[in-house]
């Protein structure tokens, strides 16, 4: 890591140009012989990312890595959520990256070890942790090499396998990740009984449970209704048939929805045509696949086996998702030029096709839902 980027005059220049157009800045010559304009712009980009993603790093002398490392790093809100109720003596992060997860996950541990194969990235993390007043053992090595030579035991081990191949294409199947979790799982159990793995939001829950043994818990984490990641807890003495699943939608008012995977297998949904209220589960709940359990646990009726909307005559307050009071309308009742938030589920028309066909646009406070019940296609309008 170039120390010159931390020179007070350089830092002053960065702060003075936080709102400058970066493209025009790149066309200019750097006023500092030891710091390129590309390096300066990267620090400005890093601070912009930090403002929305990890604001705890908006401090003097913090150094930011290249864009790819910023993109791959967890957000502060997801890292803080993951860290809840985790504590112990020794914590190990085998794939440290930019260290956001490690910073929060390790807060309640006495000794912290961070492993990262990218030397420059690790130097940045080590510098930033010193600025933030946090201590750790920083080891510049790849995961496989570390596991081969390590003799220590840890209370908790965390890893975030690489989800891109040599051509930068995204991968999410367990056998395609680097490292291959199925190959190293037993090696991990030799150093800890509590392993936490961060996985892609694209991975299928049933595939995960049937492929990776010893899962005790899966956390599905969404932020503002966008599923960001899956967190998988594995333990050598756990049978994966008894998996606890929690669904969180951070930065929303949705309550946490938790269930056991076996419960969905035995749950039965009831069905009804639309009543006074429609319930739309948030995306973390939808990702879990608990479609019948939602009906059974909340006492709600489903519109259709393949329509994951629910209905009731009386409003249920504590629901992990959106609740709308609706009425069924005919297509002729939709007026040209009206504005709606358009939702299309289990219906042949996409939102864009709906806007074009009915000559309506996005916006406003009302919702227009195109969906299907057991009796056929229908349109619902929020009141």
Q: How are the secondary structure elements laid out?
A:
Blueprint: H1 8-16, H2 22-26, H3 37-53, H4 67-72, H5 76-83, E1 88-93, H6 100-105, E2 109-115, H7 119-132, E3 137-139, H8 143-149, E4 156-159, H9 181-191, E5 195-199, H10 205-211, E6 215-223, E7 226-234, E8 244-250, E9 257-260, H11 261-266, E10 270-271, E11 277-281, H12 283-288, H13 291-298, E12 301-304, E13 307-312, E14 321-329, E15 339-344, H14 351-358, E16 361-373, E17 376-382
Parallel strand pairs: 1-2, 1-4, 2-3, 4-5, 6-8, 10-12, 15-16
Antiparallel strand pairs: 5-7, 6-7, 8-9, 11-13, 11-14, 12-13, 14-17, 16-17
Give an overview in words:
Residues 323-377 form the THUMP-like domain. Residues 277-320 form the PG-1098 ferredoxin-like domain. This is RsmD family RNA methyltransferase. GO terms for molecular function: methyltransferase activity. Helices cover 31% and strands 28% of the residues. By secondary structure, the protein is of the alpha/beta class. It starts with 7 loop residues before the first helix and ends with a strand.
């Amino acid at each position: 890591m170039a120390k010159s980027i931390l020179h007070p005059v350089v830092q002053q220049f960065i702060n003075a140009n936080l709102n400058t157009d970066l493209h025009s800045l790149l066309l200019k010559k750097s006023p500092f012989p030891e710091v390129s304009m590309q390096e300066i712009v990267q620090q400005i980009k890093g601070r912009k990312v930090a403002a929305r993603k990890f604001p705890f790093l908006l401090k003097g002398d913090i150094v930011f890595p290249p864009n790819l490392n910023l993109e791959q790093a967890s957000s502060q809100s997801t890292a803080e959520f993951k860290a809840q109720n985790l504590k112990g003596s020794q914590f190990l992060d085998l794939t440290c990256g930019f260290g956001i997860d490690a910073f929060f996950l390790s807060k309640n541990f006495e000794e912290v070890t961070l492993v990262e194969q990218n030397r420059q990235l690790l130097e940045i993390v080590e510098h930033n942790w010193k600025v933030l007043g946090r201590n750790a053992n920083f080891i510049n090595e790849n995961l496989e090499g570390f596991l081969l030579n390590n003799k220590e035991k840890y209370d908790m081990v965390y890893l975030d396998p690489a989800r891109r191949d040599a051509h930068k294409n995204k991968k999410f199947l367990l056998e395609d990740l680097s490292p291959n979790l199925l190959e190293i799982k037993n090696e991990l159990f030799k150093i800890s009984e509590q392993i936490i793995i961060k996985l892609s939001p694209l991975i299928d829950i049933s595939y995960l449970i049937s492929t990776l043994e010893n899962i005790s818990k899966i956390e599905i984490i969404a932020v503002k209704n966008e599923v960001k990641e899956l967190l998988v807890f594995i333990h050598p003495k756990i049978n994966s048939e008894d998996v606890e699943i929690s669904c969180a939608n951070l930065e929303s008012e949705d309550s946490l929805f938790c269930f056991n995977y076996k419960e969905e297998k035995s749950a039965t949904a009831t069905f009804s045509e639309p009543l006074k209220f429609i319930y739309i589960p948030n995306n973390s709940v939808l990702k879990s696949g608990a479609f019948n359990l939602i009906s059974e646990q909340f006492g709600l009726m489903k519109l259709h086996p393949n329509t994951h909307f629910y209905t009731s005559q009386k409003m249920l307050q504590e629901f992990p998702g959106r609740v709308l009071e609706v009425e069924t309308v005919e297509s002729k009742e939709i007026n040209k030029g009206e504005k709606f938030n358009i939702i299309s589920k289990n219906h042949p028309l996409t939102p864009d096709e709906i806007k074009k066909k009915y000559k309506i646009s996005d916006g406003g406070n009302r919702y227009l839902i195109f969906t299907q019940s057991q009796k056929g296609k229908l349109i619902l309008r929020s009141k």
